[in-house]
Each structure stands twice: as structure tokens, then as C-alpha cells.
Amino acid sequence: MTEGIRSQQTQRLYTCKVCVKELVQLFQTGKLKINASSVLPLLREMGIQIIPVSENHLKAFASLPVMPGHTDSDDRLIISQALSDHIPLISSDRKFALYRKEGLDFRFNER
Residue 36 sits in which domain range? Predict the structure, then answer.
């Protein structure tokens, strides 16, 4: 019975407001082809929950070291949220791997 319950559990997908902002910007600059106003409805349709930035996230951000060659503050805030909330971070940006030694559960997306 326990096996059946485990197999029926669904995985939850999260994103943060910073990622949504960057996604909208990619649409607005024409790097991705979709209407920018479609982003939020599309995320909702896909069941992706947007995580707001909290005080704990900002505290983690303030204490997160800046790694050589990676000074992107938006990326560092995304990393801080993943660390604070103990959520694996999936990205095709290999620079996120620099933060594994800070405890980041980073999973490279090869697609």
C-alpha cells in the first residue's frame, strides 16, 4: 500500500519572481517568441508556483559569497531562495554549480 501512495505523489514545480521577471524580459526583447502577457497564465496552466522573495531569502542573499566570474545579482537571489527553501535548483547555466559548496542542490538541465 505504501508503494502505491508514493507512486501517486506528484512533484511540485516552483519558480521565483526573479525568474518570471527575466522570462518576461526575454519575451519583450524578442529572444523568445510569445506574448509577454502570456507568461503568468502559462505558468499557472503548467502548475508552476511562483515563490515570493521573503526576508529569509534576503538574509541568505546577503550572506551568499560572490563567486569569481559570477556576479549576477538576480542569479544569486535565485540561488538564495533555493538554499533557504531547500529546493533543488534546475538550470542550464553551469555557473550555478559554483554554489554547490554553499549547499546548493544544483541539477544541470541538458535540454
Answer: 11-50
Q: Is position 1 within any domain?
A: no
- Same-domain check for residues 111 and 76: yes
Q: Is the pTM of this model over 0.85?
A: no
- Same-domain pairing of 45 and 64: no
Using a 10 angstrom Cβ sphere, with 0-12 exposed, 13-18 middle and 19 or more buried, the burial of residue 94 is: exposed
Contacts of the segment 22-28: beta carbons below 8 A, 24+ positions apart: 22/74
Count of domains forming the chain = 2
The enclosing H or E element of 44 equals helix 39-45
Report the distance separating Cα 44 and Cα 20, nearest Å.
12
What pLDDT tens digit does each residue of the chain (111 aa) get? Answer: 334 444 445 678 999 999 999 989 988 899 988 888 888 999 999 999 999 999 999 999 999 999 999 999 999 999 999 999 999 999 999 999 999 999 999 999 987
